[in-house]
Amino acid sequence: MRIPSLGARRIGLPRRAVSQILLTQLAIAAGVAVLATGLFLAPLSAQLDDQAMQRALAIARSTAADPSLAAAVLDSGPTADGPVQAAAERIRRATRAEYVVVMDLHGIRRSHPRPDRIGLPVSTDPGDVLAGRDVTEIDEGTLGRTARGKVPLVAADGEFVGAVSVGISYDSVRARLLGAIPGLLAYAGGALAAGALAAYLLSRRIQRQTRDLAFSDISGLLAEREAMLHSIREGVVALDPAGRIRLVNDEAARLLGLSPADTARAPGRPLDEVVGAGRTADVLSGRATGRDLLTVQGPRVLVANRMPTEDGGAVATLRDRTELEQLRRELDSTQGLIDALRAQDHEHANRLHTLLGLLDLGLHEEAAEFLAEVAGGRRSTAEQVTEKVHDPLLAALLVGKATVAAERGVPLRLTDGSFLPDRLADPGGLVTIAGNLVDNALDAAAGSAAPLVEVELRCEDRTLVLLVRDSGPGVPESRREKIFTEGWSTKQPQGRRERGLGLALVRRLAERQGGTARAGGTADGGAEFSVVLPEALR
């Protein structure tokens, strides 16, 4: 629903944005044309005035340069038929000047276009020119408004004998100025027409881009967009064609771990600079392609999708999958426990059948020995783990993994020097790290000729070192960093379960505690994963 624009109705403007823009542009073009015309005419008038004064001064100088004129001023009186009047009139007619007036040192006219004014004082003050200075001016005189040039009149011996004043009618200057106006207005009209055409074409383009909406509609849409983006529970990051951030909504800032100051500075900055180089930046920028891509940002597991826009930019959405991943890990732990119980049940059934057979055959001593051996072996495995690992969570994990490993035919053992006190700062994090590494090691060692998985735990002050070795094919050196990237895995996905998160989580959990997670090799060609946690112990 469109809301009427009150401002547009109040001042009588059309309601559509494109019409208002067109009228505004036409008004600006007309104003610029008028201003340009005025700015051109002002210096033109001054230039024509200066040209007229300089022309008058040049005529006066050429007149005063005639030595016979100075001699005539000295030898003759102020008469209408004297030589001074004759020479001045000859020069006036030749140059088409308004007047050529020759005066003596007392300011008395010796020549004038009107003979009756000869012998009378000049109408303007001759002080400056009779003092030996050239004068140019536009002034009112007996012959009207003229552009004047005055020069001293000097005799052959260098004596000042008077002055020469030449005037050019100002009406002729004005006529030249007025004559230039039609051509100037024609140019201004052409410029205005070109500006109007450009304004029309621009307004048509804006009409297509704004879909012929009014300003109030556009304002309302922007307000609704801002409210929607910041209220939805899904992160939104918009990028321009150059990969710079256009906007980050509140949920995206929370999921990406941005502070309010970082969020405020984000628009206009490159994505890698704000988010940091890595999997998240690759997914949001489009360097990693696909749908529902998983990435780990800090402690969070995110699902990202990216949609390009018409201008070459893109809009990426983020969803928090951290809780889902936690539930999945708990399910994996439960599944591991079920597998361990199933393995124990299977193994227990086999041993009961063996014990029953020995009893049926009457081999009671052998049955007693077998029963003692089975009980001692089970107790030995649990005792070996609890002697070296005092943390109950990790000890339970290793006992359960040992049972699953035995079912799969892969021995799982702790090295002789392993020891872990019950002082872990984050037992849950270490369980996740060890569980992922042991599971990967079991998968790798299961198909080898002499399967074996070794776990080593060392403590130095507050630093914990976890080593997990397997007898599998190992990890090529070129892939030892790549395997920690989210989404990268050598295993085929099972159903809809995502692969490539375990090792990425291991590294992120280690880095969150200021530690490291690296992959290496063993002397037998297997893989060795090492995790160092500097502040793991309280």
Automatic annotation (TrEMBL):
Enzyme kind, highest EC tier: transferase
GO cellular component: a single term: plasma membrane
Residues in Histidine kinase domain copies: 425-537
Example GO biological process term? regulation of DNA-templated transcription
**Location(s), subcellular:** Cell membrane
S-adenosyl-L-methionine among keywords: no
Question: According to Swiss-Prot or TrEMBL, what is its membrane topology?
Answer: Multi-pass membrane protein
Q: Give the E.C. number(s).
A: 2.7.13.3
Under Pfam families, the record lists: HATPase_c (PF02518), PAS (PF00989), sCache_3_2 (PF17203), SPOB_a (PF14689)
This protein's UniProt keywords: ATP-binding, Cell membrane, Kinase, Membrane, Nucleotide-binding, Phosphoprotein, Transferase, Transmembrane, Transmembrane helix, Two-component regulatory system
Question: InterPro entries of this UniProt entry?
Answer: HATPase_C_sf, HATPase_dom, His_kinase_dom, PAS, PAS-like_dom_sf, PAS_fold, sCache_3, Sensor-like_sf
The UniProt catalytic activity note for this protein reads: ATP + protein L-histidine = ADP + protein N-phospho-L-histidine
Where do the TM regions start and end? 21-42, 184-202
UniProt domain PAS: residue ranges: 221-262
In alphabetical order, the GO MF annotations are: ATP binding; phosphorelay sensor kinase activity
- Primary location: membrane
Give the protein name, as stated in the record.
histidine kinase
